[in-house]
Structures are given as C-alpha cells and as structure tokens.
Specification:
The chain is of the alpha+beta class. It has a domain of 60 residues. Helix content is 31%, strand content 35%. It is built from two helices and five strands; from the N terminus they run H-E-H-E-E-E-E. It has a five-stranded antiparallel beta sheet, covered by helices on one side. The chain is globular. It starts with a helix and ends in a 13-residue tail after the last strand.
C-alpha cells in the first residue's frame, strides 16, 4: 500500500511539473515618468483605472479613439509594462459591491 501511495504521489508531482507553461515574454521597465510620458505622447492614452497592491500600484491606461491600452505596474518610481494591445471592450459592473 505504501508503494502504491508513493507511486501515486510521484505521478501527481511529475504531472504538475510537466503542466507548467514557460512564457518568453519581455517586460519593459523604465522610470515611471519616462514610461507615462511615452504612453501619453505616442499613444495618447490616459489613466482610467488604478489599484493598490502590497508593493506599488497597477494602472490601466486607454485611448478610446484608437482602442489602444497599456497595463502597468509601478513601484518605487519604476514602471513596467505588463501588457498592451489595440482592442478592448469595457464591461459594466454587475452585482453587489464588496
């Protein structure tokens, strides 16, 4: 029985290890001032959402006319672009507020 349990545990761990996905995704970081200026000047995006986290903030900037958006993480005067794109849909909040 112990051998069967160990075999099951080994199979479970190896399945989890094989299920991991590696992303080769570059993240651009620079001074928050520089990145926000580029987003404003080049893409005419404005901040539309900001959320606090344990260390720093997450900010979403958007341009309604061009449908461009950028998701930033800002910490200690450094901003990193986590993602960006050129199409979005806004969603209406449904349900009670937590």
């Amino acid at each position: 029985m112990r051998t069967l349990a160990l075999a099951f545990l080994f199979c479970s761990i190896s399945t989890i290890a094989n299920a991991q996905i590696k992303l080769d995704k570059p993240i651009l970081c620079d001074s928050a001032t520089a990145i926000l200026q580029i987003i404003k000047d080049r893409y005419q995006e404005i901040p539309v959402w900001i959320g606090s986290q344990r260390q720093g903030i997450i900010m979403l900037t958007m341009n309604d006319a061009t449908q461009s958006w950028t998701l930033l993480e800002i910490y200690d005067e450094v901003a990193c672009i986590l993602g960006n794109g050129n199409k979005f849909n806004t969603m209406q909040r449904i349900g009670p507020t937590l």
